[in-house]
């Protein structure tokens, strides 16, 4: 089966300037043309740091459904431009009705987090099978068993707050042995705990950066099926926060981001020179490595995996779009439960 995934253009050079000529987007650096891309090949654009886009190019993107997202140099989300709302307005009415129903919010939140915990568990068990150290293997399997116990009781939760509590316990168990999945013995890859704003080590810097990009992909997928990315169920809503995109990406974090980071580190595709260590303890990636990380993420999206529900092979990059469609079916009442993507 043929698949078509429109490209995301990542602009990481702070001196970049995007302009439009006819239906072509041109990227310039210091007034020298670097690349030109036919607009119909573009699905979205992410602007990092001080990179700029002309009013004409931005207007063209908005009118032609090419979402433009701006993030900081380190990858923190700032804002988004997109065109007119797409999709059936009745779907968004259903989405809002479910948001106002606490029982529905709880059930949907359970589905998102069960998917996340299942995939975290799979990560631990996969590493346990591959590792040579018996003690580390026992530790990974022990924590995978703890995640199993949470999966067995999470459906008993009767509020979104309780679901969040279970998610927090699972995350603590998962990340407490994340370091055991790293076989690269370089000291800079020692992982103690999840830190953000700012990241305090190289692994957290990579994770945070890729989470932003995954969030962008989930937001694009939700908008493509006509859902409002700001009306979420698990994550609290507030102006400008893509709460539903954050909901959708929960189940995808382990397989789309964390697996990629571990693979790159264990294959020694990352080294200390790829990072800047700030006086206050913050760690940032250098520009060349950010480009490399994005390239690796894009290549992963082209890799194929069997979708457990559809029972067919698809590119990783299609997973957010398929899950967004399944979520839309759940909100319309076509199915009783939202089926998260389970990595097997």
Automatic annotation (TrEMBL):
Mn(2+) binds at residues 167, 235, 250. Keywords: Antiviral defense, DNA-binding, Endonuclease, Hydrolase, Magnesium, Manganese, Metal-binding, Nuclease. One of its GO terms (biological process) is maintenance of CRISPR repeat elements. The keyword Magnesium applies. Transmembrane segments: none annotated. Signal peptide: none annotated. Its EC number is 3.1.-.-. Homodimer, forms a heterotetramer with a Cas2 homodimer. Belongs to the CRISPR-associated endonuclease Cas1 family. CRISPR (clustered regularly interspaced short palindromic repeat), is an adaptive immune system that provides protection against mobile genetic elements (viruses, transposable elements and conjugative plasmids). CRISPR clusters contain spacers, sequences complementary to antecedent mobile elements, and target invading nucleic acids. CRISPR clusters are transcribed and processed into CRISPR RNA (crRNA). Acts as a dsDNA endonuclease. Involved in the integration of spacer DNA into the CRISPR cassette. This is CRISPR-associated endonuclease Cas1. It comes from Halanaerobium saccharolyticum. The lineage of its organism: Bacteria, Bacillati, Bacillota, Clostridia, Halanaerobiales. The gene is cas1.
